[in-house]
Amino acid sequence: MITYKSINQINASLDEREKYLKEIENEIERPSVFLQTCNRVEVYEGDGDVPNEVARHLFRVVSGLESALIGERAVQGQVKEAYINARNKFKLPAPLHKLFEYALLVGKKVRTDTEISHGAVSHSLAAIEIVESERCDLLNSRITLIGVNKLTQDILLFLKNKGSHNVTLANRSVDNAERLAKKFGCVARSLDEEPDFLKNTDILISATSAPGLIVKASDIDPDQPLLAIDLAFPRDIDPNIAKFANVKLFNLTDVERRVQKNIKIRETEVSKAEAIIEEEIAELQETLARRIAHLQKEQ
């Protein structure tokens, strides 16, 4: 039987999710799909029957119905990446393959046939909203982004449109940073230069996939005014910097809580998405039943 375990923003705090991630990410040696997003750590494994509740949960996840920002699009790509990584690492059982193949189709169908993602707020837009609400001078502020990915690219585009001209993009691989920095007319730096560029930063936004802290409390001048936004899971920025009188720190939970106040998803669109999910669960079960019947006939 296919099973799953989910540690997510509903049943665990950010601290608890980080702890669970450290416990499990190096222990998965059996055929399974390991899904890690900003909000959740999940493991799908097993063989044989796919219970409706397992399919329903995964279909809701890939459709954005279980996200902190309902309808967000990034989770579709994250589920696809988790499935491809598992397929490359293990010989997955056929029912697990079929479950994830259907899930990716469901996510696409929900976003095509409903408006669940229309106007949905991403984490990058959430960070931007916070910067604006803090009344920062985007034209003249010294802004540092850490990480090269879709999140930071979206933020760089916003900053460019706002006329920000003092922007630094830092990354472990400076070559990757230089390619993106050239596109947006900002400066690329290596993380090895962190002490230098952090002391010249007014606004810090970090969003990497690093397993541990990128910015430690000892890296920050406690007397330096700083707005810091940590979009990473696990966290990039030491939460202890929030104790500094001149530092204002927002972590992933803060960002999502703030944005949820402004998100209104019409109930009709959620209902449409849920109806599609139930239809696809029935179709998945029919497909699996036909497969079992075919195998039995061959025997």
Describe this structure in words.
Helix content is 46%, strand content 14%. It has ten helices and nine strands. With 299 residues, the protein is an alpha/beta fold. The mean pLDDT is 89.
Would you spell out the secondary-structure blueprint of this structure?
Elements: E1 3-8, H1 14-24, E2 32-36, E3 40-45, H2 52-62, H3 74-89, H4 94-113, H5 123-133, E4 143-146, H6 150-161, E5 167-171, H7 174-184, E6 187-190, H8 194-198, E7 203-206, E8 226-230, E9 247-250, H9 252-260, H10 267-298
Parallel strand pairs: 4-5, 4-7, 5-6, 7-8, 8-9
Antiparallel strand pairs: 1-3, 2-3
Helix pairs in contact: 2-4, 2-10, 3-4, 4-10, 5-6, 5-9
What's this model, at a glance?
With 299 residues, this protein is of the alpha/beta class.
Provide the descriptors you would attach to this structure in a database record.
alpha/beta; three-stranded antiparallel sheet; 10 helices; about 300 residues
End-to-end Cα distance: 21 Å
Count of distinct strands = 9
Outline, from the CA principal axes?
elongated
Poorly predicted parts: none
Question: What is the succession of H and E elements?
Answer: EHEEHHHHEHEHEHEEEHH
For the CA atoms, what is the radius of gyration?
21 Å
Note the beta-strand portion: 5-15%
Number of helices in the DSSP assignment:
10
**Biggest sheet layout:** 6 strands, parallel
The amount of helix comes to 40-55%
Widest sheet: strand ordering: 6-5-4-7-8-9
Mean pLDDT: 89
Structural class: alpha/beta
